[in-house]
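Comment thread on ticket #2218

A.B. wrote:
> Attaching the input chain for the structure job we discussed in standup.
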Amino acid sequence: MPVPGPICLYAVVPRGEADELCATTRGLLLVVCGPVAAVIGKPGNETEPRAALRHDRIVGRALDVCSSVVPFRLGVELQSGAELRRVLGANEKALSGHLARFRERVEMGLKAKLATQADGGAMRLPFGIERVRALAPRNEDRRERLKRVPSGQVFEGCYLISRQTIAAFWSAVEDIRRTLPDLPLMGSGPWAAYSFCDFALRFAQSEQRIAIQTQ
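C.D. wrote:
> Ran it. Output below, let me know if you need it in another format.
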């Protein structure tokens, strides 16, 4: 059935799981290409904050219902269903590969405020971080950085872990809190794997970045 544009692209999920998502979430449509299904909707007239909340709600619902989700950032729009089908066809292999990688996995986040060391030495990561890292042992399943701020540095980590180890992640975070009670520390998740699907979506004549790391 033709899909008139413009359309918002929320996520790509496995074809066999998309019908349940649309049956339980109002206002969604599907465009199928081989083994993948694009979850789409019509742009609304909301303010940007309301549009962002709607986008997050839909991607979060996809994560609840489907075994694997490739999320798209807010504002990815296409002019028609026909254009979307061409894009899905051109990127079917990459999207299928990401769905396979993300199957039964989620993104978890960790942030800690590190004070400046008196001797000016290198900042030390939170004691106990290795237990968190053990849940995502491969380097490609971790995104970590130290960001300098006026009062010291902020450690930010994103981890692609199995859904079955979410409780172990929170247990590891609590262990860090018990060991370092004065350390400002915040965990978050589970999220769709935004930080691990930043790849070039191929169009007919150009490329567009389709996903950004959540902050």
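A.B. wrote:
> Thanks. Noting for the ticket: The radius of gyration is 19 Å.
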